Amino acid sequence: MIRSSALSLSLLAAALAAVPAAASAQWQWRDANGRMVYSDVPPPPSVTRIVKAPGQLAGEYRPSESAPASDGASAKPAIAKSAAAPAPTAEEGFQKRRAERLEAATEEARKEKEASERASRCAELRNYANGLQQGVRAAVMTGDGSVQRLDGEQRQAEIVKTNANIEKNCG
Questions:
Q1: Domain map of the chain by residue range?
Q2: 10-residue stretch averages of pLDDT, the chain, 171 residues long
Q3: What single DSSP character describes residue 145?
Q4: Could you give the dihedral angle defined by the CA atoms of residues 53, 58, 63 and 67, in that order, rounded to the nearest 10 degrees?
């Protein structure tokens, strides 16, 4: 039992020792040689690529131009977020193109379906108008649910109405 406890303590100590001291640093920047520098004090004014600053999320920051302090003391460098966005990965580019193709195909299918439905409605309207003009018996449903056959005037009004629908929707 004592050996397992001692082993556990030694593993815990090894794990804690493996955590780099830089993890607790508040400032991170790249020096002139491109090496990463970790510190608990702000970088010198010559540093232009600050990776992490206190109170800021991780990401590259660049000091902005700051006005000199009025009391002659050196001002803290102000931190501004870099405007450069990371380039998309090949996978992200593929997924974006795939989504665009899928959206275009869906839109094309919707347009084809609408065109097919419109053509079908137009064919039905033309057949109905043709039947009315040839004198085929026609009837309409009245408000009380009964069927009323069309007389000559009603037939002509229905022909005019149907032709207007054909002009408007099938033109």
A1: 2-81, 90-170
A2: 65 62 67 85 81 67 51 49 68 90 95 94 93 88 89 91 92 77
A3: S
A4: -60
Residue 141's contacts (CB-CB under 8 Å, 6 or more residues apart) are: 147, 148
Phi, psi at 9, each rounded to 5°? -65, -40
CB burial string 38-63: b at 16+ within 10 A, e below: beeebbeeebebbbbbeeeeeeebbb
Q: What is the DSSP letter of 57?
A: -
The partner residues of 139 in beta bridges, in order of sequence, read: 149
Q: Please report how the helices 152-170 and 90-134 are oriented relative to each other, as an axis angle in degrees rounded to 10.
A: 160
DSSP-derived 3-state class of residue 50: strand
Burial category of 155 from C-beta neighbours within 10 Å (exposed 0-12, middle 13-18, buried 19 and up): middle
For 140, phi then psi, to 5°, come to -125, 155
Round to whole Å and give the CA distance between 97 and 38: 40
